Amino acid sequence: MSHEVFARSVTSKCSVVSTPLEGIAMDKEVIPGLEGVPIAESAISRVDGAAGKLEYRGVSVEQLADLGTFEETSWLLLYGELPTADELAAFTREMAGYRRLKYRVIDLIKCLPETGHPMDALQAAVAAIGMFYPTPRDLDDAAKKSACMRLIAKLPSVVAAFERIRRGDEHILPRTDLGHAANFLYMLTGDEPDVERTHVLDVCLILHADHTMNASTFAGRVVGSTLADPYCVVSSALGALSGPLHGGANETAMALFREIGSPENARPVIEKMIAEKAKIPGFGHRVYRTIDPRAKVLKTFAKSLADKSGNPECAIANEVEKVMAEHYGEKGIWPNVDLYSGIVYNELGIPAECFTPIFAISRVAGWLAHWLEQRIGNRIFRPTQKYVGKSDRSYTPMNQR
Ligand code: COA
Hints:
Layout: H1 3-13, E1 45-48, E2 53-56, E3 59-60, H2 61-67, H3 70-79, H4 85-96, H5 103-111, H6 118-132, H7 141-166, H8 180-189, H9 195-207, H10 215-225, H11 230-241, H12 249-260, H13 266-275, H14 293-309, H15 313-328, H16 338-347, H17 355-375
Antiparallel strand pairs: 1-2, 2-3
Helix pairs in contact: 2-9, 3-17, 4-7, 6-7, 6-11, 7-8, 7-17, 8-9, 9-17, 10-11, 10-17, 11-17, 12-16, 13-15, 14-16
């Protein structure tokens, strides 16, 4: 019996008391989805939802996408400043040294069902990786730094290994002479990517690296607040990211474009979905009331890649965007990051089930920056509830129910 069904059967037999327990005042309301409730002070990233702006440590993502790299962005998120040339070179070199997975982690990945979702494989592997690197109880700066570099470096290796192994290919060992983005594409495909493909993926990784107090980041901070180790923090954040209302939307958006099939078919399909009050993946956001700045950058890449390949998904997405603007523009529902990211990954030859894992191999940098921040002046998260269930019931013996 599912928990939902179970809860229904209990409440249907009894009257409900509305006396709140846990000492909370009667006038305190539950805020669904914690909308507008600040849960921490943070200096990592900032969204201006009305202006459509996103900054990491005060630097706009557009500038980072134009001029930076994912490694540089990771440093900025983790340490709060842009690195010097020497700091970046050392960080890049050191992190590349953490890419290789232990043979037993590869063996574990081989045991996972090939029909399983790569996000689940990633979550399982990250939890297992933590068992190989026990985290010292009194974490010093060096231990925190090596855990961060290990996690950022190893996530792409897990995603590439699971994807190759599940389709019957051998996994490919990482190379330390390639940058983070190029090495991932190399491990996934076996071919060293050209400069253009490398740049496109690098920009995607920069754009996804952090996004204030979203669901996966909050999940990670909650787990971090218990002083659980960073592998647990990242594996819980991965679970939160996998859902279709969060990171999983890039995969569901691509499934929708494929179902639509042609630009001409976009209007009838979307208008039918709107009439049925369905949520259209790749649109809407808790904070943005205009187009997500990341979607603007990704749309440019998607268009230039699709112009060359002739693939239809970008033209379909453009039509979907027009129909949505007519119906929902005034309501503030605009494209989010997931509308065009999958199209870009598809153009890079990446299978749809790997779209959300690519989001994850970038967002891990943000999760870890939040983990470090949470550890400063940490207090365990322990919110309260408004109890609406039964009270003071007597136990009915089994033979009398
Ligand atoms: N398609 C159609 N309607 C949408 C919509 C979408 N993608 N996103 C929001 N809406 C509508 C809701 O139906 C609701 O309408 P109502 O006021 O008539 O009830 C209103 O806009 C508010 O939406 P709500 O779901 O309450 O907002 P939220 O802040 O709780 O949720 C998202 C934000 C992102 C979860 C939501 O926009 C969504 O589900 N989007 C699709 C999935 C997606 O792309 N996720 C990736 C986010 S980066």
